[in-house]
Amino acid sequence: MKTKILRAALPLLALATMIVGVPLLACQQSAPAPAPAPSAEIAPVGAKKLNVNYAWEIGNVVAETGFAGWSKAAADVSATTTTGETSIGLIGPGPVGIGVSLCEFHPSAAMTADAANYATITINKRTQGDAAVAIAQLNTTSNWAAFNNIAIPATTSNFVAAGDSLTVTIGKTGAGAIVPQGELACFTNIN
Description:
This protein is of the alpha+beta class. It has two domains: 2-63, no CATH class; 67-188, Jelly Rolls. The chain is built from two helices and nine strands, in the order H-H-E-E-E-E-E-E-E-E-E.
């Protein structure tokens, strides 16, 4: 029975590998027991524990695994400093219509909100070089605490497909706002 389940899981594993870009599991009948998970004290900030006990849980693993990311190397020099469109990834082979459920920014410093002077973080997709289409966007009009994940909600155009290029921009409104150094990650949803 275990062999049949493992064989049935292989196409799903291949799909998960294509979406994420790295093999998620080694599924062999005689596979050794997995190493114990690292303790919470040494896990990286924002790390997600990936548990897969059954083949049908692979979709959950893919949904919990960031598929695109970007490291903002430094805080903005001034409140009016913008970030031009910057490539953050390319969607590899996989199914059509991969939904982006959420992007998150993990800032290294706090930010005080201002309803008139703020930054807009936009994650875009470009299909075969076409115009940029926003798939997630956030105006920084609420306070940020250092080292807390800031959700960047998905837009209604949040589906990507193989060959799409992902980019990020940071624009400014009014006098702007200084966006701190931080990490960006985007996550899929299960269709």
